[in-house]
Amino acid sequence: MASLSELARLHTDLDVAEVGHLQRLVASWGLLADFCFSDLLLFVPERDTDGSRFVVLGQIRPTTGQTVHRRDWVGSVLDEADREVVGRTFRLGEIIEGEVRRPPMKERVRVLGIPVRWQGSILGVLTRESTRSIGRQPGELERAYVEVFSRFARMIAGGEFPFAREQADTDELPRVGDGVIVLDAQGRVEYTSPNSVSALHRLGVHANAEGARLGELGFDDSPIIAAFAMPGPVTREIEQRADVTVVVRCIPLLEQDAIAGAVVLLRDISELRRRDRLLLSKDATIREIHHRVKNNLQTISSLLRLQGRRLESPEAKAAIEESVRRVRSIALVHEILSREAGDAVPFIEIVRPLTRMIEEALHTSERPVRVLVEGEAENLPAIIATPLAVVVNELLQNAYDHAYPLGRFDGGRVVLSMARRLDELWVRLVDDGVGLPPDFDLEHSTGLGLSIVRTLVQSELNGEIELSLGDGPPERPGTVVTLRVPTNEPSD
User: Fold this and answer.
1) How many separate helices (H) and strands (E) can be counted in the chain?
2) What angle (nearest 5°) sits at the alpha carbon of residue 271, between those of residues 268 and 272?
3) Contact 64, 34 (CB under 8 A)
4) Which stretch of DSSP H or E encloses residue 282?
5) Which CATH architecture best describes the domain 343-492?
6) Cβ-contact 467, 436 below 8 angstroms
7) Which DSSP helix (H) or strand (E) runs through 477?
8) For residues 490 and 492, what is the distance between their CA atoms, to the nearest angstrom?
9) What CATH number matches the domain at 176-268, 3.30.450.20, 1.10.3330.10, 1.10.10.10, 1.10.357.10?
10) Above 70 in pLDDT, residue 304?
């Protein structure tokens, strides 16, 4: 479905500022539909029709009552004959009430046309459409809500609503069903809905509020004072008790640019904030666990180093050093997880210290090999980042050990590149060393490093690995290692 701005561009002559005013209206008209228990439609004259045809740019249904229109009218183009009230409202610039027959049952629908005025011009018509109520007297709440809607309708017709600083709707903003308080021009309470009374009770306000200012009852009325002073809508969270949090939204009601009252919406979000605190607590606990795991791995690494210093066999010392690097590569993941919120880590922050660790351990004057990192891997789940860090460590170590035999080359360079392609991470390791032996077969390789790599990539990461000869000169063609790893978490 096309957006309001796209439909306006295709069908109307409205400029950017005018479309912005309509977007603010549509962003805040959920409470209008709930106040009038009716469907709302936004009509704008189609280009070059002089108001004889209208396109529907928006539609919303109430959450406080039944909808009239099951059909979605957005994008429809209607003649004035189909909506006579819309045409008259647009031409006269006045609020006009009428009827329309709803197909296919030809049921009569009450229509209230409200001109949408902005900076002296009529941009379109907002219609309130509802079924005829027969034999039922509206209750106090319904009468109060419809009166509030009527006041908003007069503001729309006068170009006073929506406000230029109108706040877009979000999930946490209070709705009409959460609780409504109507104030007069002096900020005194005229009406309180049952849900708003319950919200006030949870905040510790038990006195009868009608006729009094909320601040006199112990309620934090700073949002109301700010809304009256602007004038404009103000939304704030109030936490008068440790276990009770309420979102307060105050919207001034204007008459000829003067404040004639206000609507205060209340929503109890205590449970949401309690869950937020639990999540923060759990997140802090998880980060502490990662921090302790990292410390334990570093302790293991230090113990292995101590053991390696007592060994005399070069092969045993080399094996211990390789184990130390494997442990440290895993510790890097837990170190980042101990700092980051959530269970995903920016893999580039693992790769860079990992390459420095390899260079510091294996780079010598006899074998001056450097590692260059290119590209980004974005964030990866820890369940992928941990084995992948070990894989990269093994491949870099393998390149140092086998691609550059001592005394054969003056130096070398290993390029590690990463890129996201759809739902896969591609990792390429390209060296300029001696290349692969003619009879090399990864599946039958007996080296410990490549065996670890093959097992981790195929079994834990559900990925693919490919080793091929590079395109360098015959004396040092190099080796290309390509990893393709799915970035969604592997299933058990």
Assistant:
1) 12, 18
2) 90
3) yes
4) helix 270-309
5) 2-Layer Sandwich (3.30)
6) yes
7) none
8) 7
9) 3.30.450.20
10) yes
